[in-house]
């Protein structure tokens, strides 16, 4: 039930810190260590390459998952859109592990790939919010995202929960491989939950930003580098699906290869600046678009902020910035849709789970 909330989407955005804390509780043992199923651990340890298969927001979580698994556990990962993989299967490695990410566990495109993968005898793991779902039943292993039912068509808490579980999977794999980690996931995810809360507490300010930047525009661009780029893809998807604003996420460095031609006076450009090693470059990308008349909205991380930034996130570990930085993007999309009088929870032409190909 949505209780006193005007929309499920707002309720589900608000539930994210709790969902993250819940995941920590579900996956830690009595000694405060992360412990996943032995079978999953073995499969992750044995594989020479992981293939993440998903659609929409779950695909965007997969992109961040690649970064997490490669950085923390040093296992190579490819991320594929299910509907593409189905008809254009790439060459796969000798000992692949397929990870399906799906909030509903019922997405037909992803299931199509799972059926093919099983025929070939490859191992599969489903990360889902619905444990009894088709993808969960048909894969060899399941990890539950424990986010609670997600009702709004626009996925929010499932996305952050997927990334939290992918973090734990990466850490568990690194431990299984005997790697030394200077990253405490329980502590760092706790810090993330608190950073999410402080962003959620600023929703009135974010509503004002949405009003200024997004209430009349026809289009909007999101730019970022590294994982910020992946979060930009998610921010753009959120905005387009519920507010019908044409929105695209771009890698900052690609602007000059074409996209910058779209910038006009007043074009909203939302820039993410949470990555220390590319902070200078994304800042110069912002200057390039501002010089062509764009209205910038800069979302940065405490410690990297500069005067004039619109929203500053509390500091979180560099591996985990997507979990915090997506929150203002979700809120921007929510308020933009509200100001434009769109049906926030049930956008036109969309279904919560896409069970046909
Ligand atoms: O249930 P799934 O995670 O498999 O669904 C995948 C996509 O259909 C879903 O993420 C969709 O893109 C959402 N409407 C995004 O908000």
Automatic annotation (TrEMBL):
GO cellular component, one term: cytosol
Residue positions of the active site: 352
Chief site of localization: cytoplasm
UniProt subcellular location: Cytoplasm
GO molecular-function term, one example from the UniProt record: glutamine-fructose-6-phosphate transaminase (isomerizing) activity
Biological process (GO), any one: UDP-N-acetylglucosamine metabolic process
Keywords: Aminotransferase, Cytoplasm, Glutamine amidotransferase, Repeat, Transferase
Domain SIS: residue ranges: 40-184, 209-347
Source domain of life: Bacteria
EC number: 2.6.1.16
Recorded catalytic activity of this chain's protein: D-fructose 6-phosphate + L-glutamine = D-glucosamine 6-phosphate + L-glutamate
Subunit record text: Homodimer.
Main function: Catalyzes the first step in hexosamine metabolism, converting fructose-6P into glucosamine-6P using glutamine as a nitrogen source.
Protein name stated in the entry: Glutamine--fructose-6-phosphate aminotransferase [isomerizing]
Residues represented out of the complete protein: 245 to 601 of 601
């Amino acid at each position: 039930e949505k209780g006193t909330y005007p929309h499920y989407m707002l309720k589900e955005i608000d539930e994210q810190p709790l969902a993250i804390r819940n995941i920590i509780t579900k996956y830690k043992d009595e000694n405060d260590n992360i412990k996943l199923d032995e079978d999953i651990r073995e499969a992750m340890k044995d594989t020479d390459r992981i293939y993440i298969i998903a659609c929409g927001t779950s695909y965007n979580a997969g992109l961040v998952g690649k970064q997490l698994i490669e950085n923390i556990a040093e296992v190579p990962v490819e991320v594929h859109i299910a509907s593409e993989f189905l008809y254009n299967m790439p060459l796969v490695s000798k000992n692949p592990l397929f990870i399906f990410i799906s909030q509903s566990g019922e997405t037909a495109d992803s299931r199509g790939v799972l059926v093919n993968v099983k025929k070939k005898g490859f191992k599969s793991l489903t990360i889902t919010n619905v444990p009894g779902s088709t993808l969960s039943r048909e894969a060899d292993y399941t990890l539950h995202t424990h986010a609670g039912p997600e009702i709004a068509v626009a996925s929010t808490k499932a996305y952050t929960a997927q990334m939290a579980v992918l973090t734990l999977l990466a850490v568990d794999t690194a431990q299984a491989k005997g790697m030394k980690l200077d990253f405490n996931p329980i502590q760092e995810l706790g810090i993330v939950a608190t950073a999410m809360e402080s962003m959620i507490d600023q929703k009135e300010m974010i509503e004002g930003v949405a009003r200024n930047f997004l209430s009349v525009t026809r289009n909007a661009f999101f730019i970022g580098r590294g994982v910020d780029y992946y979060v930009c893809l998610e921010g753009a998807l959120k905005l387009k699906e519920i507010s019908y604003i044409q929105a695209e996420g771009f890698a900052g460095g690609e602007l000059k290869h074409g996209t910058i031609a779209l910038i006009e006076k007043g074009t909203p450009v939302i820039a993410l600046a949470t990555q220390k090693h590319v902070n200078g470059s994304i800042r110069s990308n912002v200057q390039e678009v501002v010089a062509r008349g764009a209205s910038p909205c800069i979302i940065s991380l405490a410690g990297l902020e500069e005067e004039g930034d619109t929203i500053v996130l509390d500091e979180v570990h560099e591996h985990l910035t997507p979990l915090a930085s997506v929150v203002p993007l979700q809120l921007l999309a929510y308020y933009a849709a509200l100001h434009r009088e769109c049906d926030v929870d049930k956008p036109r032409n969309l279904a919560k789970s896409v069970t046909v190909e």
